[in-house]
Design brief:
single chain; 121 residues; six-stranded mixed beta sheet; 4 helices
Length: 121
């Protein structure tokens, strides 16, 4: 499973994902912090990566994508500290592993995780 972490997500989360055995690239670490949302999305699709972001625009972009494998995890957390993000991401990985293999948008909130399969009808 490969991840692409958006600028709003801490690099510590990318480090944690790598420690768990995942291929995780943070935009900052790759020198790509100036990419537009569309360019980030295109990179993720091209490289078969799951976008991890706080940016709600990615859910809209993903919902409109046609014919591509689309995988986005949107964090809607009041507490954006990396330890809290990791805790919630750990829950996603343990409870929704099969969902992470399909076209989806997963919205992670403080008390719930919502999975929407694509395309949205």
């Amino acid at each position: 499973m490969k991840w692409l972490l958006d600028m709003g997500v801490s690099s510590r989360v990318a480090d944690w994902l790598r420690q768990q055995g995942y291929d995780a690239v943070h935009l900052r670490d790759a020198g790509l912090q100036r990419l537009s949302d569309d360019q980030i999305f295109e990179k993720a699709v091209r490289e078969d990566r799951i976008v991890l972001t706080f940016d709600l625009d990615f859910a809209d972009i993903a919902a409109q994508a046609v014919g591509d494998v689309v995988q986005v995890v949107v964090l809607r957390l009041r507490n954006a500290r990396s330890d809290h993000v990791i805790e919630r991401l750990r829950k996603v990985l343990s409870d929704h592993e099969n969902d992470l293999l399909t076209n989806f948008i997963i919205t992670v909130e403080g008390s719930r995780i919502r999975v929407r399969r694509l395309p949205i009808q």
